[in-house]
Amino acid sequence: MRSMSRVSAGRAEEWQDSEQRELEVDGQSVVVVRYEGEFYALRNQCTHKDVPLLGGEVSDGKITCAKHGGRFELATGRARALPAVKPVLIFKTAVEDGEVFVESL
Ligand code: FES
Fold first, then answer.
1. Whole-angstrom Cα distance, residue 2 to residue 22?
2. Separation of 82 CA from ligand 1 center, angstroms?
3. Which of 24, 44, 56, 101 is a good FRET partner for 8, with 20 to 30 A between their CA atoms?
4. Which of 51, 62, 63, 64 has most ligand 1 atoms within 8 Å of its beta carbon, as the pocket-test mutant?
5. What are 56-93's pLDDT values in tens digits?
6. Residue 80 phi/psi, 5° resolution?
7. In-domain check, residue 94
8. Which residues line ligand 1 (CB under 6 A)?
9. Residue ranges of the Rieske domain (predicted)?
10. Does 1 reside within a domain?
């Protein structure tokens, strides 16, 4: 059985809106985004080519891959703009006692 870890992403109040941070969860690089007060976490790898999503523009509930402009919905990981077609894996986020946690779904 795979061991599942739950990783702290720090205090919620220390995040700016639209801030992004990279975390490692179960050996995978994950990009955590605060957007309109909510926390989202996606695998930090575009599904078009092997390029990190970290640092991509966040707007309209989506993160844009800086390489070719593929866009992914933060909440679902669905690809919403070409050339990205396949969804990106998403992770679960939770805020407990003011601390943000990320874990595999
Ligand atoms: S590598 Fe992300 S859209 Fe091409």
1. 22
2. 9
3. 56
4. 51
5. 999 999 999 999 999 999 999 999 999 999 999 999 99
6. -120, -5
7. yes
8. 46, 48-49, 51, 65, 67-68, 70, 83-84
9. 7-102
10. no
